[in-house]
Amino acid sequence: MKNKSLLMTIAISLIAISSFAQVKGLFTDSRDGKIYKTVTIGTQTWMAENLAYKASSGCWAYNDSVSYVATYGYLYNWETAKTVCHTGWHLPTEAEWTTLTNYLGGDSVAGGKLKEIGTTHWTSPNTGSTNSSGFTALPGGYRGGDGAFYSIGGNSSWWSSTEDVPEEEGRAWYKSMYSSVYSESSKEDYGFSVRCIRDK
Q1: Domain spans in the chain, listed from the N-terminal domain onward
Q2: Rounded CA gap, 144 and 60, in Å?
Q3: How far is CA 54 from CA 6, 8, 31, in A?
Q4: pTM summary value
Q5: 94-103 and 107-114 helices cross at what angle (nearest 10)?
Q6: Which residues contact 112 (CB under 8 A, 6 or more apart)?
Q7: Cα separation of 7 and 166, whole Å?
C-alpha cells in the first residue's frame, strides 16, 4: 500500500512538472547573424530573449548606449515593432500574450514564472521569480514619448500588435511586468521591447 501511494505521488509530481516542461531551441536571424534562444510554452514558441535587431528607424538602445543591447535588446516604437520580427516570426497579438499568461495560471501569478531569477538584472528583492516557463523576462525599461529613458532594472514592457479601440487612436496595447503581468495601452511613439512569437 505504501509503495502504491509513493508511486501515485511520483506520478502526480511528474504530471505537474511536465505541464510546464520547457522545449528549448535556437534561431539565427539571417539579417545580422544573431543567435536567439527560443522556448516552447504550451502551444506557442517564443524567443527567450528580447529582439536586438537594429532597425533603420524607430529603434533605440536604452540611454542611447549600445552597451545595453546585448542584454536587453533594442526598444522600438509601435510602427517599427510591427515589422521588425524575422520572416517566420511576428509581433504577438494581445490575444497571444493572454494565451501565454493564461497557460501559466493567469496575470496575477504569471509574472514570477516568466521573470529571470535573482537580482543580476532585476532590482532587489525580485521575490517570487522562478522563470519556470523558460521565458527569462528581463527589465529593459522603456523610452517615453519625451525621448527620455526609464525603469531599467525595475520593469519590462513589450508591444503587442493590437491597436487600442478607435476612440484611442494612436495607442496600442502592451504587456508590462512587475510581480504580476498587466495589459496597458500606450502612445505608439513610446519605445518598448519586442519578443517575437513563431508563426503557426
Answers
A1: 21-198
A2: 11
A3: 54, 52, 10
A4: 0.88
A5: 80
A6: 128, 129, 130, 179
A7: 56
Per residue in 14-57, pLDDT (tens digit) is 333 344 556 999 999 999 999 999 999 999 999 999 999 999 99
Which of 159, 197, 151 has the alpha carbon at shortest distance from 175?
A: 159
**Distance (Å, whole) CA 74 – CA 6:** 50
Helix or strand or coil: residue 129?
A: coil
Cis before 166? omega within 30? no
Measure the CA–CA gap between 98 and 45, rounded to whole angstroms. Answer: 14
Does the pLDDT value for residue 12 go beyond 60? no
Using a 10 angstrom Cβ sphere, with 0-12 exposed, 13-18 middle and 19 or more buried, the burial of residue 71 is middle
